[in-house]
């Protein structure tokens, strides 16, 4: 009886464990870089792919606000309560700790009541936009492993952009747009992550899910990392082998979840209505109580430990690798080109260790340069071979021995000798590089100034906006060549006098200089909506004039010549000071 009970309990435990375990053990956590095993030759090291544990990365970041003086409290000011936007007797005072709301309160422990939060100044300078950039920097490449979660103590903003950088804040790419009206704010159709698929998982979307206005019970904004993982690993992330395979073979997918910096661009605070209440501007501000970013140091599967020392994160590299991201081979271990580790095969992956250079093992034959195999040209006298462009591919071992002649900075392991030019060139450059030594970037990419030449991220995609740029290429600083009326590093912004409509188009009308006349209203800067009696680009013509039916009794006739209605504006333009004599 006891045995049957034990077996029943054991079966129940196995069932529950299989349901609750989101990452089955056979997939491995890659938490060991090497282990000793016994072979016929005795004890040897068995190397495996490895990576640091995922952790809360907000403990290691630096935060920067732009403008720097946007935090409330200097000078002290009052603002309205969160629950009652018309009870405006709360105070923010930077000189009083109990009333101050500095940026570090976005990252402190949130177990206290009431919660602590950073807060911006109020929208007292309306209609000037209230905009804030919050930049989170790690000075290290990190890989995101869980959703980014931002908790607002105020209403969630009406417009916001989450951006990422892969080059330490030098250039930025959008991660996701947030708005109460995506079409109006960003000229994008609203979508959610559920609308994506494996093939469109890298699409940058605008979502309206998290911008519901001034509601105290709607505080959280997500950037969904796990939902994107689920397109490859399944709803419960059980098929991690599929995800690992995709991350191994698709660099753009791996880069999508990799950042050095994040930037939260707050563009418009929660209004809650169609119009801004100009009599109660202390209602409008930004307040964030918590930001969660989970991830791990990127160590290219060559380390399990990432140390934080002197305010800097660094991988403790294994597999004879070195560098902040374990991104190159150590000296005397360059017998083959550096390569990142691989998640596959499950569960141990492939270490791709750096091996000793041949020169460090023995004394190989000396060559002045890499000569082609002339005997393969099938001639009796090699001296009679006419000079011509002859390509001879050499092996990666020869490349390692002849770095003076064949150096590809780890972006290729093949070289060719050009007899006519008496030089060696790299063949099949990877990582979006090109050139004799793979030292240049392909068209459509530009040089990452913060990366070494042997870094696989040395070339960054330009991401020129196809509607706003002349072509998909950019200069050495990442700036694209913009079409007329367009500006911005990626040509995704319009110059004054232009509005975005499938690219920047000149304004037909606006509310500043190009006013619609005769009671017309400007619609999206592209046309005037005229009253029934008027027509023309700016509603400047009577409709009856086009039909030739204007008359004194039509009700639409033009004012008679010499009437005061025409002469008064004319006199004003000419500066006439005396009476008109009419």
UniProtKB/TrEMBL annotation:
Tell me which residues make up the Laminin EGF-like domain: 462-511
Asked whether the UniProt record includes Signal among its keywords, one would answer yes
Which SUPFAM superfamilies does the entry mention? EGF/Laminin
| Entry superkingdom | Eukaryota
Where the record annotates domain EGF-like, the positions are 505-540
**Domain Laminin N-terminal residues, every copy:** 46-296
Q: What is this protein called?
A: Netrin-G1 isoform X1
Q: Which organism is it from?
A: Balaenoptera acutorostrata
Gene behind the chain: NTNG1
